[in-house]
Amino acid sequence: MVEFSKNPQRLTPYPNFRFKIKWDGNYVAGVSKIGALSRKTDVIKHRSGGDPSVEHLAPGQTSYEAISVERGVSYDPVFEQWANKVFDVTNSQSAVGENTSLLDFRKNISIEVYNEAGQKVLAYNVYNAWVSDYQTISDLDAGGNAFAMQSMTIQNEGWERDPSVKEQKEPSFTDPSN
């Protein structure tokens, strides 16, 4: 069985280190890690009174797990601006509810995966996402040798694979001397 219909010579799956995330129509710079997209469907168990020895199983409610996103600290305020839409500390002394932006704190985001040649091979659309946890800067360590990081946890109401992204023929480079 050929796993890659347009690229039958490909023997390996796509790498996990080439990706981008986009919201508000813009790619977010410096993202180094995105947590897994995961969903869980509860199981409803049922026994019939006429046959109590058999347990029937049916799908119940589905929930979507939170997505973690990490990036290196930069001057770009895009993480902080989104996180502040859920709770803006500068408005914390305001009347009840005036410190949350109910109009636009939810975003639809896109997570894109690329092959080694830089071609988009997969994309997932995440719906009604919002920031439930935000870390503006990681631990600082004068003896360390790492970048300062920001992180956020994004709640969502579902995701799906983007059907518009199709497998492309991977590029082949030929020797120009031939």
Secondary structure tally: strands: 10
Low-confidence stretches: none
Largest β-sheet summary: 8 strands, antiparallel
Question: What Rg, in angstroms, do the CA atoms define?
Answer: 22 Å
Structural class: mainly beta
Number of alpha- plus pi-helical segments: 1
Question: What is the percentage of strand-forming residues?
Answer: 35-45%
Mean pLDDT: 88
Tell me which oligomeric state these chains represent: single chain
Provide the succession of SSEs: EEEEEEHEEEE
What share of residues is helical? Answer: under 10%
Estimate the global geometry from the Cα principal axes. extended
Task: Spell out the blueprint of helices and strands.
Layout: E1 19-23, E2 26-27, E3 31-34, E4 39-48, E5 51-64, E6 67-72, H1 78-86, E7 107-114, E8 120-135, E9 149-155, E10 159-161
Antiparallel strand pairs: 1-2, 1-7, 3-6, 4-5, 6-9, 7-8, 8-9, 8-10
Short description:
By secondary structure, the chain is mainly beta.
Structure description:
By secondary structure, the chain is mainly beta. The chain has 1 helix and 10 strands, in the order ββββββαββββ. It has one helix at 78-86; strands at residues 19-23, 26-27, 31-34, 39-48, 51-64, 67-72, 107-114, 120-135, 149-155, 159-161. The strands form 2 sheets. Strands 1, 2, 3, 6, 7, 8, 9 and 10 form an 8-stranded antiparallel beta sheet that branches. It has a two-stranded antiparallel ribbon with strand order 4-5. Strand 7 and strand 8 form a beta hairpin. The longest helix is centred in the middle third of the chain and has 9 residues, at 78-86. The mean pLDDT is 88.
